[in-house]
TrEMBL record:
Record bears the keyword Hydrolase: yes
UniProt key word Hydrolase: yes
InterPro entries associated with the record: Beta-lactam-related (IPR001466), Beta-lactam/transpept-like (IPR012338), Beta-lactamase/esterase (IPR052907)
Coiled-coil blocks: none
Keywords for this protein: Hydrolase
UniProt protein name: Serine hydrolase
Domain Beta-lactamase-related positions: 28-362
Length: 386
């Protein structure tokens, strides 16, 4: 497939453009992709290609929202407003039922709560779109494992749970604080709640078009509805959750649930992670080196995820990205999104990376689409040669 590549790269990053073109050419179906990179707070790569998409196009980036939400949490910890070692129930008394009273905020951020979904009453899309509804429902539920003893991806609910702690302490939602402290000051084209003025730039998420072999593999891998994974992905609902429809749902776009409902583009994602660790347009980094290192460190050693079966790879609220792509520097942190998108900050090399896909790729088994490995390596090669 021939897909024209548009955009610009700084001198020395021409190889990144070539790698991006190669990735698009190797796709069976048009992915509608964007790639943006910052180095030491300056944008050095701004590329896009695919039908119906340009550098300004906005789409659902799913779990990259966890990165945005937990930048807010990291800032509040850095400010001394939140304490990672304090019990969640000390902030949110209703949470302290069924053995959850001893779970700390740090453990919650590490996906250790055992509250991956509601086994008793599946969520509707409209409920999952509203973090307050999600949090209120889960507060009184029995966890699916003893809190703190294991971990499993709280795919659709972690941002609602950590966000309720934020709301109880500050009186503000994660979405409000993200807007006030991060998005607006740094001019990010990434939103937890799409403003009406930006609706004209929205492009729908597109579904995977599987081959017959891929379709058979997906059927074989499907979670049993009553399994931990099935509950986490709402497969036990009368109408199991459709990820494409979820990302395109008007209420999800409007409310921006902090686990899975962010809307943006690669420019916004890369600039967000650049702002986390670098000076951007004269503004200092959001996080101190100590805070960034603490939130980036691998926190789930010693076994597979009880939801996905993947090897451990969680930091505090973020993914420990080197566990997915081992060539990345140890302090790198970020988050992937369901279509295969990825954003991360690499403080050691001053790199911030944003890659987005409009079309779902075949699940890689590591969250981020595998082409991110090729693209990120091309970025690091270019940066090392300067």
């Amino acid at each position: 497939m021939t897909i024209a590549v548009h955009g610009t790269v700084a001198e020395g990053f021409e190889g990144v453009r070539e790698e991006f073109a190669s990735v698009l050419a190797g796709e069976r179906d048009d992915p509608g992709a964007q790639l943006v990179v910052y180095r030491h707070g300056r944008r050095v790569v701004d590329l896009w290609g695919g039908d119906g998409i340009d550098g300004d196009s906005l789409t659902s980036l799913y779990s990259i929202a966890k990165g945005a939400a937990h930048l807010v949490v990291a800032l509040l910890v850095q400010d001394g407003v939140l304490d990672l070692d304090r019990a969640v129930a000390a902030y949110w008394p209703e949470f302290g039922t069924h053995g959850k009273d001893r779970l700390t905020l740090g453990e919650l951020l590490e996906h250790r709560a055992g509250l991956v979904g509601d086994a008793e009453q599946p969520f509707t899309v409209e409920e999952l779109a509203d973090d307050r509804i999600t949090a209120a429902r889960l507060a009184g539920r029995r966890p699916l494992w003893e809190p703190g003893t294991a971990w499993g991806y709280h795919a659709f609910v972690i941002g609602a749970l950590t966000g309720e702690v934020v709301r109880r302490v500050t009186g503000r939602s994660v979405q409000e604080l993200f807007e006030e402290r991060i998005r607006a000051p740094y001019g990010l084209d990434y939103h937890l709640g799409l403003p009406a003025a930006a609706e004209a730039r929205w492009v729908d998420v597109q579904p995977l078009v599987p081959t017959a072999e891929e379709a058979a593999l997906l059927k074989e891998r499907a979670a049993a509805p009553d399994s931990i994974r099935g509950i986490a992905f709402n497969a036990h609902a009368p109408a199991p959750l459709d990820l494409v429809a979820f990302g395109n749902h008007p209420r999800v776009k409007a409310l921006g649930p902090a686990s899975s409902g962010g809307v943006g583009n690669a420019r916004g994602v890369a600039r967000m992670f650049a702002a986390a660790v670098s000076t951007v347009d004269g503004r200092p980094p959001l996080l101190t080196p100590a805070t960034a290192a603490d939130f980036a460190a691998l926190r789930t050693p010693g076994g597979p995820d009880l939801v996905t079966g993947m090897d451990d790879h969680f930091a505090r609220g973020f993914e420990h990205t080197p566990a997915i792509f081992p060539f990345l520097a140890p302090g790198t942190f970020g988050h992937s999104g369901a279509t295969g998108s990825l954003g991360f900050a690499d403080p050691a090399n001053g790199i911030a990376y944003g890659y987005t896909r409009r079309r779902f790729g075949f699940p890689s088994g590591v969250g981020a689409a595998l082409e991110n490995g090729r693209l990120a390596q091309s970025v690091l090669r270019a940066a090392a040669a300067l």
